[in-house]
Amino acid sequence: MSTETFYEVMRRQGISRRSFLKFCSLTAASLGLAPTMAPRIAEAMENKPRTPVIWLHGLECTCCSESFIRSAHPLAKDVVLSMLSLDYDDTLMAAAGHQAEAIIDQIRKKYKGNFILAVEGNPPLNEDGMFCIHGGRPFIEVLKETAADAKAIISWGSCASWGCVQAAKPNPTRATPVHKVIFDKPIIKVPGCPPIAEVMTAVITYMLTFDRIPELDRQGRPKMFYGQRIHDKCYRRPHFDAGQFVENWDDEAARKGYCLYKMGCKGPTTYNACSTVRWNGGVSFPIQSGHGCIGCSEDGFWDKGGFYDRVTDIKQFGVESNADKIGATVAGVAGAAVAAHAAVSALSKARSGESDQSKGGK
Amino acid sequence: MSLKSHEDGPIDEVAAGTTVYVYEAPVRLWHWVNALSIVVLAITGYLIASPLPTVPGEANDHFLMGYIRFAHFAAAYIFAIGFLVRIYWAVVGNHHARQLFYLPVTDKVWWEGLFREIRWYMFIEKTPHKYIGHNPLGHFFMFFAITVGGIFMLVTGFALYGEGAQAGTWSHTLFSSWVIPLYGQSQDVHTWHHMVAWGIVVFMILHVYTAIREDIMSRQTMVSAIISGHRTFRE
Ligand code: HEM
Ligand code: HEM
Ligand code: SF4
Ligand code: SF4
Predict the structure, then answer these.
(1) Who's near A315: CB < 8 A, 6+ residues apart?
(2) Which of A54, A107, B120, B195 qualifies as a cystine partner to B125, CB 3.0-4.6 A?
(3) Mutate to test the interface with A, among B46, B54, B161 (most CBs of A within 10 A)
(4) What ipTM was reported for this prediction?
(5) CA distance to A21, A132, A214, per residue, from A167 (Å)
(6) Is 1.20.950.20 the CATH number for B18-233?
(7) Which chain B residues have a beta carbon less than 8 Å from that of A345?
């Protein structure tokens, strides 16, 4: 297990050399690398001992795993999955129970400082972490322990990256994203609920083949997939610029595929690759299916009020308030106050005018 | 200025009909350019968040949302450049050109003036003080709405602008790259840009009302001061 290369693993999985080379060029393309990089990926995979991956599950719904195993390039899925399942993923691997848990210890010791820890979900911190038990122990303990020996951590999905719905106010279990409990390891966030399968496989392949972390933005997301907003590459954008919007789910504009901005589409504020990579092997993505983006890869998307509002709620000012409601109310009050004040001012001026006259002026 | 007894304080002994030159030409010009740009920004900003009804026909025949956003961004540049020029003038201009950018919070006379002004607005005080420059209450609101609020709108506005302009552009490098992570995501930046826009609208309502009211009721001219620069004291 220790000296095997990726290529050897793949061949052992029954993958032909031809398919292997195809995988390398597909990976190069999906990473936005030049075609000349494909042979370099092949070379790396043929010669480097593979890096083990441990995949841990905290508080989550397994949508990241579900997405991952549906990666469009079946090859990528087979390859990466077979590499992963060789190590540890309690949801996908065959082993179970104490045997399975022993694998984590083994890898931690054997590949100390040399394996990648992929985390799906997050640790809840309240009640000493009792809301999520992993092999008889609070998940937070397992996470910290495993992370201590890892080379780098991948935060899969919005749960590990931001907290997601289990962290929604008032967050009774105090579900906490990975970067708020692990501080001493590089963390790569791959947010989304779930993240796009091809984005997941590309990120992990990049790390395994090049032995380094993809370039990240300030919030720790790989720039190559999270550098642009849905809105920047949305095929309905011409309708946005023209001022053609769906106003109701059943109107003519909805049938014609106009922009979903007024239906609360969060494409203008969401960084993800849906409008370019799309979903389910490039078949479609939410907006193409007629529903606005809900901003599932953005921090706090679950706590911003309705998915169908363009101007979203401001929690600080009570439950059902947004900038327009508050602003229009305050402006209305100011307007009314001005009118009332003007009336009183006029009265008092008239009165003081009278008294001035009675005193014979001032 | 010989009339001035105290930097930001009131003057009380002045002969009726005395006229002083207060606001220099660049300040007056900026006032009206700035006022106009903010009105355009507020209207187009509202229409960005709540767009007009759908236009009929083919998308390639229209650019309505595009033009509204263009007007917002053009006015934003005018607002931004005007603001920078105004800061320059605060440095080289007279004392009243500087008032907008600071509050004399350590000045007891100023605070007394502020409370007197509030009492005057509550109809408790019979007469207001006379001021050469801004009265303390006006000064207070201008500082928060235009200096603090304006800088906030510039920073958040250019951060949103940089998202569209994308990484590598100056607006993205200077603003988006830190403002968006500061809020966590872009949606909250929109929300607060929107919220403060309403704050500035409220200021406009109060400002225009008080300017006209003071012009009629106080012991000095107001509107002419910001048009011709000269303020005349009555009584
Ligand atoms: C009909 C509309 C307006 C009138 C009659 C008006 C009148 C005035 C007057 C009389 C002053 C001088 C106040 C003083 O002497 O203390 C002033 C100053 C000022 N006004 Fe307006 N104003 C108008 C619209 C606006 C708008 C829309 C804005 C922006 C929201 C604005 C922002 C300011 C600012 C920032 C100052 C301080 C000028 C400085 O110190 O450089 N005004 N205005
Ligand atoms: C006093 C000045 C300003 C006012 C009153 C104002 C008002 C607004 C409002 C109400 C919105 C809608 C917010 C939402 O999405 O809910 C908006 C959006 C925006 N504003 Fe401003 N704004 C001002 C200054 C600026 C400046 C200086 C810039 C700099 C370029 C700017 C750039 C933007 C951008 C980029 C958007 C988003 C447009 C989009 O999503 O398509 N704004 N503004
Ligand atoms: S549908 Fe959404 S992402 Fe697409 S153009 Fe409209 S607002 Fe932008
Ligand atoms: S379109 Fe938006 S809500 Fe849908 S998957 Fe992509 S980022 Fe998430």
Answers:
(1) A169, A303
(2) B120
(3) B54
(4) 0.92
(5) 42, 13, 28
(6) yes
(7) 123, 213, 217
The CA B157 to ligand 2 mean position distance, Å, reads: 5
Q: Supply B194's token pair.
A: 């929107």
Q: How far from each other are the two terminal CA atoms of chain B, in whole angstroms?
A: 20
Q: Is the distance from CB of A262 to CB of A247 less than 8 angstroms?
A: yes
**Pocket of ligand 3 contains residue A263 by CB under 6 Å:** no
CA dihedral A44, A46, A52, A57 (to 10 degrees): 80
Show the tokens assigned to A35: 């075609």
- Angle at which helix A97-110 crosses helix A139-149, to 10 degrees, equals 30
Compare CB distances from B190 to A243, A269, A344 and report the shortest one's residue. Answer: A269
Q: Does A321 touch chain B (CB under 8 A)?
A: no
- How far apart CA A179 and CA A243 sit, in angstroms, is 40
Rounded-to-integer distance, Cα B135 and Cα B231, Å: 13
Residues in A touching B216 (Cβ below 8 Å): 349
Residue B160: name the closest of B173, B175, B145, B148 by CA.
B175
Interface check for B124 against chain A (CB to CB < 8 A): the answer is no
The predicted model scores a pTM of: 0.91
Residues of A in contact with B195 (CB under 8 A): 314, 323, 326-327
For residue A299, give both structure tokens: 């921090």
The finding on whether B189 has its CB within 6 A of some atom of ligand 1 is no
Angle separating helix axes B25-49 and B186-217, nearest 10 degrees: 130
CA dist., res. A300 & res. A295, Å (int): 9
pLDDT digit string, tens, across residues A59-112: 999 999 889 888 766 565 666 666 665 667 777 777 777 888 888 888 888 889
Q: What is the 3-state secondary structure (H, E, C) of chain B?
A: CCCCCCCCCCECCCCCCCEEECCCHHHHHHHHHHHHHHHHHHHHHHHHHCCCCCCCCCHHHCCHHHHHHHHHHHHHHHHHHHHHHHHHHHHHCCHHHHHHHCCCCCCHHHHHHHHHHHHHHCCCCCCCCECCCCCHHHHHHHHHHHHHHHHHHHHHHHHHHHHHHCCCCHHHHHHHHHHHHHHCCHHHHHHHHHHHHHHHHHHHHHHHHHHHHHHHHCCECCHHHHHCCEEEECC
Decide: helix, strand or coil at residue A16.
coil
Answer positive or negative: Cα dihedral of B172, B178, B183, B185.
positive
| Cα A67 to Cα B88: distance, rounded to the nearest angstrom | 56
Question: B61-73: per-residue pLDDT in tens?
Answer: 999 999 999 999 9
User: Cβ B184–A299 below 8 Å, yes or no?
Assistant: yes
DSSP A112: T
Say which ligand is closest to the CA of A237: 3
Where do the domains of chain B lie?
Answer: 18-233
Q: Which residues of B, range 56-75, sit inside 8 Å of A by Cβ?
A: 59-66, 68
Percent share of chain B, pLDDT over 90: 81
d(C-alpha B69, C-alpha B79), whole Å: 15
Give the distance (Å) from ligand 3 centre to CA of residue B194.
19
